[in-house]
Amino acid sequence: MRRHLFASAAVIALFAVCDGVASAQAQDAGATSQNPPAAADQAPAAAQQAPADSGGNLPEVKVIQQQAKPKPVKQAQKKPKAQPQPAPQPVAEAAPQAPVETSTSEVPPSNVKMSPFGASSIPVEKVPAAVSQVTATDFKRDETVIPQEALQARVPGIIVGDLQGNQFQTNVQYRGFEASPVNGVAQGLAVYQNGTRINEAFGDTVNWDFLPSNAINNITVMSGNPIFGLNALGGAINIEMKDGFNYQGAEVDTRFGSFGRKQVSTQAGQQVGNFGIYGAFEAINDDGFRDFSDAEVRRGYLDLGFKNAWSEFHFNFTGADNHVGVTAAAPEELLAERGWDRTFTSPQTTDNMLQLYQLNGTVKATDTLSISGNAYYRRFKQKHVDGNIAEAEECDDAPGLLCIEDGIAFGKPGTPGVNPDGTINFDPTAHYGSIDRTSQDADSWGIALQATDKSRLFGYRNQFTVGTSYDHGRVGYTANSELGTFLPRFVVAGTGIKFVAPPDDDDCPVPVAPGEECGSDDVTPRNLTTTNDYFGAYFLNTTDLTDRLALTVGGRFNFAQIKIKNNTDSEELEALNGTNTYNRFNPMAGLTYQLAPGLSLYGGYSEANRAPTPAEIACSDPELPCIIESFLTADPPLKQVVSRTVELGIRGEQGLGWTGDRLNWSLGVFRTLNTDDILSVADATSNGRGYFLNAGDTLRQGVEASVEYRSRRLYAYANYTYLDATFRDSIQLSSPDNPHAVVCDGAPDPTDDDAPHCVNVRPGDTLPGTPRHRFKVGFDYWLTQKWKFGSDLVALSSQFFTGDEGNQDSPLPGFARLNLHTSYDVTDHIQIYGLFENVFDRRYGLYGTYYNAELANVGGAADTPPIEFEEPDEGGRQRSITPALPFAAYGGVKVKF
Prior knowledge:
Layout: H1 2-28, H2 44-49, H3 58-68, H4 71-78, H5 88-94, E1 111-113, E2 121-123, E3 131-135, H6 136-142, H7 147-154, E4 158-161, E5 171-174, E6 177-179, E7 189-193, E8 196-197, E9 216-222, E10 235-241, E11 249-257, E12 261-272, E13 275-286, E14 295-307, E15 311-325, E16 330-331, H8 332-338, E17 348-364, E18 369-389, E19 392-394, E20 402-404, E21 407-408, E22 432-453, E23 462-487, E24 491-498, E25 526-544, E26 549-566, E27 578-596, E28 599-610, H9 614-617, E29 641-656, E30 661-675, E31 678-682, E32 690-694, E33 698-710, E34 714-727, E35 731-734, E36 742-743, E37 757-761, E38 773-782, E39 787-796, E40 815-825, E41 830-837, E42 845-850, H10 853-860, E43 879-883, E44 888-896
Parallel strand pairs: 7-10
Antiparallel strand pairs: 1-2, 3-9, 4-5, 5-6, 7-8, 9-10, 11-12, 11-44, 12-13, 13-14, 14-15, 15-17, 16-43, 17-18, 18-22, 19-20, 20-21, 22-23, 23-24, 23-25, 25-26, 26-27, 27-28, 28-29, 29-30, 30-33, 31-32, 33-34, 34-38, 35-37, 36-37, 38-39, 39-40, 40-41, 41-44, 42-43
């Protein structure tokens, strides 16, 4: 009921706005009625500056040229020949028009915000680091509703990984650093939405499924800027949403297609005097191409704004209520023998709910001083269900009873199947598994203040920014495990028996051998509260030392305090209680030099840090491993991660003759060294469990190149990244299921078949999941004034499996995927379009890891017909992969008012 109410309210609100838009646009149409409605989604100021825009947007290019390069205006007074701007007018009129969508010749913003919010923008040619921007037009190109996909196409170095097997819950990897929705992934990117940090409080995870794609105005990806605070090891992703000042009009988009895809998205915006309103909503249903991989996404955004000559304020709301089937990796043999749609253990589902309220504003106190503020409240709820194989067997020391994880299993007396003393009888005919459940209930809020002054410094043009922020998060976390049995297709059915904490050894109902414990703490229910307090203070200064040379210096002090409180009666879990504190000052400095108009060099050095998350701190003891997504244990302290980045590059923006064609390009090199990097590793003796540790230093270095061409009829782009991501220290890491692993050093009995196994990592070994080569290319071409065709190609080289940190196994093969898209404008207000993904139906894996074949055969015996996996001593490889989406086709209709 809540989901339906949420959807209904959003739709009603949007159409109420649309109703007012039609009459307002009719009034505005007077002098510009010959122009197509495409200009309706541009800001009024832009419309006044470029009244002759007829779809080609060439006058808009002219305006941005003036903004990006103010110097040539003075030169033009001495050299009149440097003023070619009037020429594009007749060309713009002859260009193919794009009535329903913005033309591909629209150029991205020329200024970049150097902090998460406020008036901190500087021209992109003065940024001493790599910068990439993805605009609303980029989302329209291939009509993607998944922000991660747009980032992958347009940003060098970004790829999309899929640990969970659902395209709405994928992770973004930039230069080998992750922003993922999965707990257990080391999070190395800071992500902001309208100035609010959206890395979740518990694990710094990022839930990309909360972002309505049609409400995104632009996304900036920037490296080497510690001003964005914690987690900006590899960089920051800054997301700015639309408002009533930069979008006017209304649009309804419906789509249907492969695997039961049905979706409706709407957006509407309007400015009335100094006030603006904007709203967007997306409802998406998808059955998924794999078993139990359905998705139901409901997400919306609302912005109310006020703007005049000296101030601007916005109140906005983001809401989402999503259900996602997460099917994860499956054994290669299962996919090959039983079908690409098969899953390995289910149910695996995630239910996410979000309410985010934000208030931000900027006041121009003087001609040079601006004061900005940002405040937010965020409510996040998540429920995760995970069916698993389990180490469940008959107890050696207590025949007839069930043992799990090498300890006697206990349930709540009175539950069917549980004995009065809490023990559970073993059924030799059952194929045992488990269903693990976790939940998060998080409340967070924060406030930030910032001042930016543009007064001259000793006669030099200068911009100085200073700010501070405070973020508070409180998370209630629970986890429990239920005994289950396998059904066909690796479905785990619950028995209703939930495992409880074992009694004290003195009260154990069965004899316990000396040195042994009565039961296993690995499946003991968890209930805890975590509290995060993050404080930051920063400054940033950019000075034009000459007309061509700009110097930027800055830094940020980060303070993080993380408290964990156990809410259960378990004495074993009392050690969870504790407070961990981290602090550090991270500096940055860089130079840019303008070689010529539209051509500049950049170079910079920066540092950043990441404090361990509550999930990592509470799961860092190898003696008490935990299921990463569910169970937490006592911990030795983890060190914070510190990154040091150096990068150099050159970038250019040139106009190509009087036609108004544009060529943007960049080439850069980077080197980021992480000290005390945190990794999650599998426990060597307990299946499905793991822990976090500081794994020494890691290095990510490489080369990035990108080029972008825009003309009246053609838009084309290409980018390439070479990434060398390696370990820098010798270390031994647990990897129990890697068939190439060896017995761990210090094993009590190396000759025991159950002895723990590890991989030996040497300096120079490649980090798993980091393809060395990343190439993306695409184009859009207007075949006629109404018909557009385009394509996008993503090609990645091979990558090592997670669990093969020693690089001894053959890697997961690389792949190339081609997508096509086309659209046709039926009228000035109606467009039909088609999308075709993976047109050659390539079968490849997006992510690789290992599984335990012996335990998997328990579930395999229940399949129809039974399937048996080869164990390593029989030549089995125990490799599992996340299969990529096969060929899919979608069609839709877009109506714009």
